[in-house]
Amino acid sequence: MVAIVGPTASGKTELAITVAERLGGELVSVDSRQVFRHCDIGTNKPTAAELRGLSCHAIDVVDPGEPFTAADYQRVALRAIGEIAERGKLPVLQGGTGLYLRALLDGWNLGDAPPDPALRAQLEQRLD
């Protein structure tokens, strides 16, 4: 597995595409916004033309407004990485969401607890 990470607009996607082409890989997005469908421009998702036939996983997973946690991402990405490896290809992680990257690389146990809006509101009130 290769990880190409860094800040916004640093050329990660183009580099990841080049690496995947040369090493026989598929991309796995590590971006907390690219998981949302219909948010292509604001998230700078790679276009079909930019991908040049490569597969890109962990994008367009849920609709905007649907909850999607780091645990959800971890499940989606680990499944994609496993499938890529089963095909004999190299998973090429690309993106800039550090939380998602750490969850993958460090194997965090994030559990399956669903989001709790009431608890979140209570904790946010404490901050005010």
Report on the architecture of this protein:
By secondary structure, this protein is of the alpha/beta class. It has one domain (about 1-125): P-loop containing nucleotide triphosphate hydrolases (Rossmann fold). It contains six helices and four strands; from the N terminus they run E-H-E-H-H-E-H-E-H-H. The chain has helices spanning about 10-25, 40-45, 50, 70-85, 100-105, 115-125; strands at about 1-5, 25-30, 55, 90-95. It has a four-stranded parallel β-sheet, sandwiched between helices. Helix 4 (about 70-85) packs across helix 5. The longest helix is centred in the middle third of the chain and has 17 residues, at about 70-85. The mean pLDDT is about 95.
Salient structural properties:
single chain; 128 residues; alpha/beta; Rossmann fold; four-stranded parallel beta sheet; 6 helices; globular
Layout: helices, strands, pairs:
Blueprint (H helix, E strand, L loop, with lengths): L1 E4 L6 H12 L1 E6 L9 H4 L4 H4 L4 E2 L12 H17 L3 E6 L2 H8 L11 H11 L1
Parallel strand pairs: 1-4, 2-3, 2-4
Q: Which term fits the overall shape?
A: globular
Report the CATH C-level class. Answer: Alpha Beta
Strand segment tally:
4
Give the neighbour order of strands across the main sheet: 1-4-2-3
Helix content: 40-55%
Low-confidence stretches: none
- Secondary structural class: alpha/beta
Number of helical elements: 6
Radius of gyration: 16 Å
Sketch the topology as an H/E string, one letter per element. Answer: EHEHHEHEHH
Average pLDDT across residues? Answer: 94
CATH fold group: Rossmann fold
Question: Sheet with the most strands?
Answer: 4 strands, parallel
